[in-house]
Write a structure and sequence with these properties.
Bound molecules: zinc ion
Strand order of the largest sheet of chain A: 4-3-5-6
Number of strands of chain A: 6
Number of helices of chain A: 8
Oligomer: homodimer
Largest interface: A-B, 52 and 53 residues
Order of helices and strands of chain A: HHHEEHEHEHEHEH
Helix content of chain A: 40-55%
Strand content of chain A: 5-15%
Chain lengths: 197, 197
């Protein structure tokens, strides 16, 4: 096999979920049928890797100093949703009708990995809360041990700034069958049962 | 979402088997954790799309006028294996101990799609057979209707040049359970049964 083709197959393996076999299939597919789009991908990918940084206000991915959400005049400035990563921000934007602002931690408190308040930009978050506009902080860290510890820490920051902390509700996923829900979620959902009508 | 990020997610969909959701996951993964390798992929991909052409002798992918297999002095020049595409050439190279040469059709006879002898480079193949070195032509087109028609045509070319045409054996895949083998393969395998010991 030609050197450049071998290099391409190897390079494609940086994509998540792509092993040697899919990488080879992708390389041949692009060469045989999608040269134009492959070239376009190369160019956009290079630009994205070089130019996408983080918003100076919310730390979400952005190629501008201030991202479109922070710059928007139509988003509610009284609610701030704190997430661990841009992936979760995108999931909330796509699934919910949330129209407030965000703050992205780019991680979660994890002292063993060297992730403390400074790495998560909590000084920036504290400044933001001190501006006085925010009334509610929706804490949307993941429901893992570290995510919960982070949520606890964030709630204290919020209270210190006289901001109301809230947390996403836990429970049985909509359309989820009880027998397939994990035990701790089921226990939580049972304990948090709500009165009907 | 930032414009460049949206463009990247859209561009990643040129990869086979990658829909909107995986494209988004790939983009976030590269931005969050693999900038260096993402940049390397962009550069190799651009070079590959621009510089990989076809070998002037066998039509396999190559960034040189003559590919490494055609240029090799250690490959058997008396056997020529004809395949539809570089993908099948790679599969044969990786799975078998074949040490002969190749010819890649870059398609199969399909008059409705405008693919005739000229598009498949059969003039080049005829010249190659006329050189007189080749003794056997292994026809490894796919066992589809068009692949079989192509095999039939190729066998005639070979005979006209006094070259022995051979075809890959059909049958039950090794380790394949009979109940999962398609009916026509099973019928063929039964009809072509071999004496034991
Ligand atoms: Zn922002
Ligand atoms: Zn060649």
């Amino acid at each position: 096999m030609s050197k450049l083709l071998t290099d391409l197959i190897e390079a494609l393996r940086c994509l998540p979920g792509v092993g040697g076999k899919s990488a080879q299939r992708m390389a041949f597919h692009l060469l045989e049928r999608e040269r134009e789009r492959g070239l376009r991908l190369a160019q956009v990918l290079e630009q994205a890797m070089q130019r996408i940084g983080n918003c100076t206000r919310c730390r979400n991915f952005s190629e501008e100093p201030v991202c479109p959400i922070c710059a928007s005049s139509s988003r509610d400035r009284q609610v701030l949703c704190v997430v661990e990563s841009p992936t979760e921000l995108a999931a909330i934007e796509q699934a919910t009708g949330y129209r407030g602002q965000y703050f992205v931690l780019l991680g979660r408190l994890s002292p063993l990995d060297g992730l403390g308040p400074e790495e998560l930009g909590l000084d920036l978050l504290t400044e933001r809360l001190a501006e006085g506009e925010i009334e509610e902080m929706v804490i949307a860290t993941n429901p893992t041990v570290e995510g919960e510890a982070t949520a606890h820490y964030l709630a204290q920051l919020a209270r210190a700034a006289k901001v109301k902390p809230t947390r996403l509700a836990h429970g049985v996923p909509l359309g989820g069958e009880l027998e397939y829900v994990d035990r701790s979620t089921l226990a939580h959902a049972f304990g948090s049962r709500q009165p009907l009508g």
